[in-house]
Design goal:
mainly alpha
Length: 118
């Protein structure tokens, strides 16, 4: 799967391995590095808990992250609208973590296409 299709197209499916290695790991590492840059450059605001660079990064990655979440739900044979459950405070985030990060997708083809081969 190419970069553009993975991050910018809601069509298809994304398995757990791709979710963790292509989305969660890079966003965590880059976010942590940008947080250090924010602190070192004095751009970190302790009241909001975010800095200039981490804020810009969060905004730039919002849409690609939602698209990958949609495809991860497709792998679970659920509609992408399930992403909206993340809007429920506390429970929504826990739900997304369990559903997208830990539960296996459907084996074989489903209504969103064939399974992804690594």
């Amino acid at each position: 799967m190419d970069f553009k299709k993975f991050y910018l197209s809601p069509q298809g499916r994304v398995n757990r391995k791709q979710f963790w290695l292509w989305l969660v790991l890079p966003l965590t590492v880059i976010g942590a590095l940008l947080a250090l840059v924010d602190i070192a450059s004095g751009n970190y605001n302790p009241e909001t808990g975010i800095g200039l660079f981490t804020g810009i990064f969060a905004l730039l990655t919002l849409i690609p992250t939602i698209i990958v979440y949609i495809k991860r739900f497709h792998d679970r044979d659920k509609a992408g609208w399930w992403v909206l459950i993340g809007l429920i405070p506390i429970i929504g985030v826990i739900w997304l973590l369990i559903e997208l990060g830990f539960l296996k997708g459907t084996s074989g083809p489903n209504r969103f296409g064939p399974p992804v081969m690594d």
